[in-house]
Amino acid sequence: MYEKYFIVNSLTDAISLKEKFAESARILAGGTDLVLEMERGMHSGIKEIVDISRVSGLDEIWMDDQLYIHIGPTATHSACLKSPLIQDFAQCLYQACEQVGSPQIRNRGTVAGNIATASPANDTISALLALDAKIELSSSNGKRIIEIDKFFMGVRKTAIMKNEIITDIYFKSLKKNEYSCFIKVGLRNAQAISILNCAVLIGLEGNKITKARIALGAVGPTVFRAIEAEASLLDQSISNGLFDKAGDLAGRAANPISDIRASGDYRRSMIAVHVRRALHQAIETENEIKSNPVVLWGKEQTSNSPLTTNSIELDETNIINLSINNKEFSFTGGFGKNLLDLIRENALLTGSKEGCGEGECGACTIYMDGVAVLACLIPAARAHHSNITTIEGISPEGDLHKVQQSFLDEGAVQCGYCTPGFVMSAVKLLEENPHPSVDEIKTGISGNLCRCTGYYKIISAIELAANE
Questions:
Q1: Is residue 113 part of a domain?
Q2: Which residues constitute the domain of residue 450?
Q3: Is residue 448 part of a domain?
Q4: pTM above 0.90, yes or no
Q5: What DSSP element (H or E) covers 214?
Q6: Phi, psi of 347 (to 5 degrees)
């Protein structure tokens, strides 16, 4: 378990701390991977957490005068979905971000975090590889740039040195004659680790292919490009046979393992199918990108947290100060807990439930600084000086919120254990979009699991609340 938690307000402070504690410190931006891994005992050597999530400006997504799109190290997957630059000029990355976890996970997880975790099944890595991204690493010695295809050294191994921090991810925006697509195969439509994924990018002059990149994920020890398949496309005219050949070559390049999710043979066969499919979808004009995706940010349409005025060092002797449901709390004995346990055990607000403790079920959905997140994946120390809303706080006057009432009216409650999480997601969805479609409702609650109702009553309850 970590011994110190630093909430920094500048990149300079973060770099200084990473230099000082190079052997034992880890950077945390979203922490959706890191927190769970620490709870599973995977990082016993971590003694210090350096939280950069409140550093001003690190969450920006912008384009420079050379038409490179830059993604800051704390930019979340939801921020990418909301970015017009990603929507218009990096479609495969948009599609990859859209399929990461659930809205609650996407509101905390970052693109830089995916890169740092370096799992071959991480979705955004394939898209960034197809986009030929570059990664900026900063330390007290200055900055260095690494091309993404040279960044990954093996399963969960990268070229990052112990004193370095990812400070920028950038790639050239797609031109009008360049097209991209990302496809993921999982065991379900949300909250699923990739069985396999692929991202493709092709450039066209008329009907002739002038540029081709094919990146494959979850079918090797790292995400990699299918070089032979790419070469087969260059200077060729589009045809079904051409895409079939490229898919077959991609399948031969795959070197997948067999595990609980799929066999190696299945992955090898299906990567060929989905590369062909991705190539076709990339050039289809109806390849839809939603300009107003569901993110569960609410009315304010922002994922920023309040910034600290100075960097803060916390340990087990410190008091954690935060606001819960517009009431100020000061807790001792909370350091080292996750935010859900702090809420339930220290604040004695037991409406938020622990179903899985792994970010899978959504029963612990709360709002942190106005954004829907999973409390089980957030260190309690991260909530220092934050504003938290739990199920007990969604209707301050004490009456039932209209979503709660609609759940009762429609019979959308059975055992009730998952209900607080569903209600929290639904309330934020309707705050964000008062009249969502059925598909948008499904996306809004895709991070919440229920074993009793079959979901139909839950969806109809949210529709009822939207019509009131």
A1: no
A2: 402-466
A3: yes
A4: yes
A5: strand 208-217
A6: -85, -15
